Amino acid sequence: VAHSSQTFGWALIYLSVTVSCVSDSSVKRQRHENDSRASLTQAASWSNERQLMIDRQIRGRSVQDPRVLAAMRAVPRHRFVPSQLQKDAYADTPLPIGFDQTISQ
Q: A single Pfam family, by name (predicted)?
């Protein structure tokens, strides 16, 4: 009986460790999927902001060269400004990027 009880105890420990590992893995996977979705949503938002900047600001100033427009569409301005200014990265205003320099409007 003692052997059976000890085996049962070890089985419970094994089971709880296994469930814990599987559960932790599942939580991490879900967190990663949520982060990936949020990242894709943010990337789409930045892309939309870039396109609006091109349509309203760049073309509004009669810039029509397809190479210039393609370059403006390709450059992720929000990556070149301090994080606290990223929300304004595509606004029609110069933004400081450090060393007394700005991204011009």
A: PCMT
In this structure, the dihedral spanned by the alpha carbons of residues 18, 21, 22 and 27, taken in order and rounded to 10 degrees, is 160
Cα of first residue to Cα of last residue in the chain, in angstroms, is: 82
The stretches in the chain having pLDDT less than 70 are 1-3, 19-36, 38, 105
Paired tokens of 97: 């990027």
- Listed in sequence order, the residues at least 6 apart from 6 whose beta carbon sits closer than 8 Å to its beta carbon are none
Q: Can you tell me the distance from the alpha carbon of 56 to that of 78, in angstroms, rounded to the nearest whole number?
A: 18
Q: Which amino acid does the sequence have at 74? A: A
Phi, psi of 102 (to 5 degrees): -135, 160
Cite the active site residues.
Answer: 104
